[in-house]
Write a structure and sequence with these properties.
The structure holds 2 protein chains of 2 kinds. By secondary structure, chain A is mainly alpha-helical. In chain A, α2 packs parallel to α5. Helix content of chain A is about 80%, strand content about 0%. Chain A has one domain. Chain A has 6 helices and no strands. The longest helix of chain A is centred in the last third of the chain and has 25 residues. By secondary structure, chain B is mainly α. In chain B, strands 1-2 form a two-stranded antiparallel sheet. Chain B has 2 domains: about 80 residues, no CATH class; about 45 residues, no CATH class. Helices cover about 45% and strands about 5% of the residues of chain B. The radius of gyration of chain B is 29 Å and the shape is flat. The longest helix of chain B has 17 residues. The chains are: A mainly alpha, B mainly alpha. The interface between A and B is medium-sized, with 28 and 29 residues.
Chain lengths: ~100, ~160
């Protein structure tokens, strides 16, 4: 049976990957499990900009060349982010409310 | 006479990294699929409601799931992942949650202020900015058929 320390990454790159995996895992757990959990205000304000969403997807392309695990968790993060904000905007868009 | 030195061209940044990935790994068709998917995901809300409703049907789901598997096997796993993301997004935005009794043509949305909150809003510390349905019109279940479906027999007086 291998020791626990043998499972740890051997390089700094491995530790950075591990850090991103843990961070994204925690983020998905917080934002993905409860719909009412609020996103940072900056992420809400910047969401309507298409270039921001394109940049997020380009980040996935870059991550795919680096680590498949990080890419997978990043896809989860982007899915929860887009879905939550699209549903919220669809229901409670101020522009829509002011039209009525 | 001073010698003319050519201008130094600086290279680097995310653009070069993406171009490098594309040049090393992908064929042009994969790049076109990727670009189409990126724009589809970014503007997923712009897809017409009929198309989103069709995507939510059994045939639509079979087509989308099969497409994700096919593309990931035939082209690249990243494109398959993007199709999976697009599938989940378009399914989550399909207009399937409309109940039969809801009148979708009439919108009763009303903006409210928080000067005089309802008791339940004050207790639950809710600050609504609007009511989606202030008045809801419902209809009782109608049975105009002449055939009785009841198994119970009437007792004669």
């Amino acid at each position: 049976m291998k020791k626990f320390t043998e499972h740890l990454p051997k390089t700094i790159d491995g530790y950075i990957k591990l850090f991103f995996i843990i961070a994204l895992f925690g983020w998905n757990l917080v934002e993905g499990s409860v719909y009412e959990n609020a996103y940072p205000l900056a992420m809400i304000h910047i969401y309507p900009l298409a270039i921001w969403r394109i940049m997020l997807l380009l980040l996935v392309v870059l991550a795919s060349d680096w680590s498949a695990h990080v890419t997978l968790l990043l896809i989860y993060t982007i899915f929860f982010y887009i879905m939550d904000l699209e549903v919220t905007i669809d229901k409670w868009s101020l522009a829509d409310l002011q039209k009525k | 006479m001073p010698s003319v030195t050519p201008n130094t061209v600086m290279k680097g940044g995310a653009r070069e990294a993406i171009l490098d990935i594309i040049a090393r790994q992908w064929s042009p068709i994969e790049v076109y699929i990727l670009m189409f998917l990126v724009f589809s995901i970014v503007f997923v809300r712009e897809y017409p409601a009929e198309l989103r409703l069709y995507a939510d049907s059994i045939l639509g789901k079979i087509a989308l799931f099969s497409l994700a598997v096919f593309v990931s096997m035939k082209y690249s796993w990243l494109n398959g992942l993007f199709i999976a993301l697009f599938t989940l997004l378009i399914l989550s935005m399909s207009p399937r949650n409309t109940e039969g009794f809801q009148d979708t043509k009439k919108n009763n949305t009303k903006i409210v202020d928080n000067n005089n909150p309802w008791w339940v809003e004050a207790v639950l510390k809710e600050n609504p900015i609007g009511f989606e349905d202030e008045k809801v019109t419902t209809f009782a279940v109608q049975d105009d058929s002449s055939i009785s479906r009841s198994n119970s027999s009437r007792s004669n007086p």
